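#dry-run=false #mode=assembly
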Amino acid sequence: MPSTQTPPLTGTAIDPPALRPPIDDAAIERIAPANVHARLAELKREGFTLLLDVGAVDYPQRTPRFDIVYHLLNLRKTKRVRLLCGVTGTAPKLPTATDLWKSADWAEREIYDLFGISFEGHPDLRRIQMPNDWEGHPLRKDYPLRGPARERSPRPAFALKSNVQAGTPPSGRTLEALQQQIAKIRGEDRSK
Amino acid sequence: MEVGPGHFLLAKLDDVARWAQSSSVWPLTMGLACCAIEMMSATAPEYDIGRLGSEVFRPSPRQADLMIVSGRVAQKMAPVVKRLFDQMADPKWVISMGACASSGGVFDNYAIVQGVDTIIPVDVYVPGCPPTPDGLLYAVNLIQQQIREGGRGGLLARA
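#status=ok
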């Protein structure tokens, strides 16, 4: 069955739709936070011996706000399962999966670091990517891109989006003006 | 400096010291990002930074004269860069290689230091994204020029 997350294909895609098979190898399950550890243990007993990754997604407009995504692989049957678990609040908590798969260790640390979601029972829940004294969780959508300290300072002129969209060179001069200047340097007369 | 008729050299001792020093500016082995690829390319035969006497990339900051900040400096890397710079013996020089090291470049965000000159003093900035190896060689040339023309270094260099 094609995944609901298959991106919509249009006729303008570079690769023709026929060459791009739908993502159909992962069964997607949504589960409540209270049941997630029991379900993970059950899946492990069923043969999903490999936890490939644990990820998180922030949907700021939605309740529950965060999705924790477990990617599991059954090596014998070559089957995949994607387990989604919604959590909400400013400091959400989930039971850890490190007692089932050691590979959950750093993945859960990363989620804690970048999303501020705690995993109860994790042996070593520290930041992994940001410096230890960092404040805030940068991959949350409400985290200012340029950092809390610099968010209100003006952006340099060449970084303004309007310049990029208009195709104006960083100097502010138009392409025509630049070409005229180049011609002038080369000693050509472009007015004819 | 002049070569006398009996094939000996007359020069001020300080000039000789500066000549030797400027011909052996040894960089620190430190690559931060993609600019480091161009830095490695500058050491390879095609560009051959060895012609300037700078081919000896030292693995220890104690033995290095030149820090080439080759790439974006992450906030987490900033204290490390500062510490390496502090560990280098005087006199020492810094090249800020590329747009990211000089100003943050395209990374106008929370994770990247907006110019390495906010944490350590920079002698030469090399523009480009990434700069060509020629650009880096020219930067080393400029530092050699500074040394020969009475910049930091020489006999009276602070130990």
